[in-house]
Specification:
With 581 residues, the protein is mainly alpha-helical. It is built from 32 helices and no strands. The chain is elongated and about 120 Å long.
Length: 581
């Protein structure tokens, strides 16, 4: 009864019986395949184990199935179906190397099985082994020359592999059988373009238009093709024809914008974009993307700022509920360095969509660039409430706090932000330390200030800003003047015409009593745009006084007051024509 049951099961897997009938063949690599004749008992045993393997596979017991299929090979080493099944399982569990190994074995023992070859070809394609995939499809094409699908896939593989002549040959073979085909003709045009056969590329699309003169897409393709060969008049005619057929064709309009930009016809590009805005069949997101491309493709477009702004006004009126339009406004105004307008739109974005940190970040950064420190401080506090774990927002808020006299708040924000700063972000960490140094200096906590200057310099030892400010603050306190002079000297070595760095260097020389040398460097600072800086002018007066030129010293002190310097000490110098004791 047991053998009767086994035989009845084998009826269900009859296809596997053919595995025992292979007479032998040569594999693609030329290895001779020798089949083994099984006696009846071995054959029944093989079929039983093979069925168990299939059952395990279909019930999800893949490891067990692999063991059964492997045992099948011990019973019949030349059977191809177990290798094929093992390849399918290996592919299913992402063991691609094993999938390829078993797939090759299946093809070796059944070279004319198209399913094995298709499976192996697909494995090669997924590993981008196009040469190997091509070998499989070439075999399939020889085996089934009437199969157009094999030829089409083979042509596509040749194309993808850069074997354009072979691809063209196969596309022509397909066309000979099916006639003119739009997609094939477009692929041929693309390949002719790649290999520099301009006339043939153009002819492919012209033939399509002759056969289908109302297909607007073809005119767009031909227009772009003409433009790529600098045949601009013909390209423009094709765009005109395109819009005669389909006046709202969105792809054509976007293509035409690119065409006008390439030919420096910015006014026409903007006019075409205006039509895109009015085209209700084009999605809002596409209109956004077209404007972004229009704005970022060429800086020359910015000379049409009024027209660009009018486009955005039109877009905004058409989509009043879409707050995203303000991102386009902000982008435009930032590129135009119109920071006040950019900040207005960034603020709308930040307050309308509080879920996006980038809006707050950009808004605060613009405030910093503008020197609007009160706004930076106030909106910085709001940003931190929304994103209380973003170290950059704490940093930006601290800049505003420092500049409006809220240095205690700056210190608090900076220490809070440090808790969320990753160890890998050393650039921002150095900025944090520098800002802490400034805040503690403002609070007259000089020991803490010096500590953070030194921590920042440990990360960025050549940072000009740090070297200058630290050395200047030391000179104000008459502390570590030799180190201050060394730091300051580094800044003027790197930037010898920077009036601020020259002033610091001159002032440290003054502090150590080198008045003549100090006078030489303060005058270099004046010559390099320092004549409008009240601090530099006051220092110049002090240095002139120490060099014995009292009248000129008083003259420079007066100029310093005219430039905004206002202190009792400066008034004393002017009124008494001398330095305080």
């Amino acid at each position: 009864m047991r053998y009767i049951f086994i035989f009845s099961l084998l009826v269900l897997v009859g296809s596997s019986c053919s595995l025992l009938k292979d007479k032998g063949a040569n594999d693609p690599d030329g290895d001779k395949v020798v089949n083994i004749d099984l006696n009846r008992n071995d054959s029944l045993k093989y079929k039983y184990v093979f069925f168990k393997a299939l059952k395990s596979k279909y019930t999800g017991s893949l490891s067990e199935a692999l063991q059964y299929f492997d045992y099948c090979h011990k019973l019949n080493p030349t059977a191809s179906e177990p290798y094929y099944q093992m390849s399918l399982i290996a592919d299913r569990i992402d063991e691609i190397k094993d999938a390829l190994k078993y797939g090759r074995k299946a093809v070796q023992f059944s070279p004319d099985n198209k399913w094995y070859r298709l499976h192996l070809a697909n494995l090669h394609i997924r590993r981008n082994q196009l040469d190997s995939a091509i070998i499989q499809y070439e075999y399939l094409d020889r085996m089934k020359p009437e199969n157009l699908d094999f030829q089409y896939r083979l042509a596509n593989l040749y194309n993808e592999n850069g074997q354009y002549q072979n691809a063209l040959q196969y596309y022509k073979k397909i066309e000979d059988k099916v006639g003119l085909n739009k997609e094939i003709a477009i692929r041929k045009q693309q390949m002719y373009s790649k290999i520099g056969e301009k006339e043939k590329a153009i002819k492919e699309i012209e033939n399509l238009i002759e056969n289908s003169s109302t297909d607007a897409r073809l005119y767009g393709i031909l227009a772009e093709l003409y433009a790529s060969y600098n045949m601009y008049d013909k390209a423009e005619k094709m765009y005109t024809k395109l819009f005669e057929i389909d006046s709202t064709n969105n792809m054509g309009q976007m293509s035409m914008i690119r065409f006008y930009q390439q030919n420096n016809k910015y006014q026409k590009a903007i006019e075409t974009y205006y039509k895109i805005i009015e085209n209700k069949s084009i999605r809002f997101g596409s209109k956004m993307l077209v404007f972004i491309n229009l704005l970022n493709k060429d800086k020359k477009i910015l000379s049409y700022s009024y027209e660009l702004e009018e486009c955005l006004n039109k877009l905004s009126s058409q989509y009043p509920a879409r707050v995203e339009v303000h991102t386009l406004y902000a982008d435009l105004f930032l590129k135009l360095n119109q920071f006040t307008n950019a900040a207005k739109h960034l603020r709308i974005l930040a307050y309308s969509d509080k879920s996006k940190q980038i809006y707050w970040d950009q808004l605060l950064s613009v405030y910093s660039l503008q020197g609007k420190f009160q706004d930076l401080y106030e909106d910085g506090k709001k940003a931190i409430k929304e994103f209380n774990k973003e170290p950059r927002l704490y940093f930006l808020a601290s800049i505003g706090a420092n500049q409006v006299g809220e240095s205690d708040s700056a210190v608090y924000y900076l220490h809070q932000g440090l808790n969320f700063l990753s160890s890998g972000n050393q650039k921002l960490r150095a900025d944090y330390y520098a800002q802490l140094a400034e805040a503690y200096h403002n609070l007259n906590k000089h020991k803490e200030s010096d500590k953070y200057f030194e921590k920042a310099l440990k990360i960025q030892p050549n940072n000009q800003f740090l070297l200058n400010n630290y050395s200047y603050y030391l000179s104000l306190r008459n502390e570590k003047l030799d180190m201050a002079l060394d730091y300051s000297e580094k800044t003027i070595e790197k930037e010898p015409n920077n009036s601020v760095y020259l002033d610091t260097y001159a002032w440290i020389l003054y502090k150590i009593g080198k008045y003549r040398k100090s006078k030489r460097y303060i005058e270099k600072a004046i010559e390099n745009n320092g004549s409008g800086d009240g601090d530099i002018l006051e220092h110049y007066g002090d240095i002139l006084y120490k060099n014995g030129d009292v009248e000129q010293a008083v003259e420079q002190w007066k100029k310093a007051r005219e430039k905004g310097r206002d202190s009792e000490e400066l008034d004393f110098k002017i009124n008494n024509k001398k330095l305080p004791e």
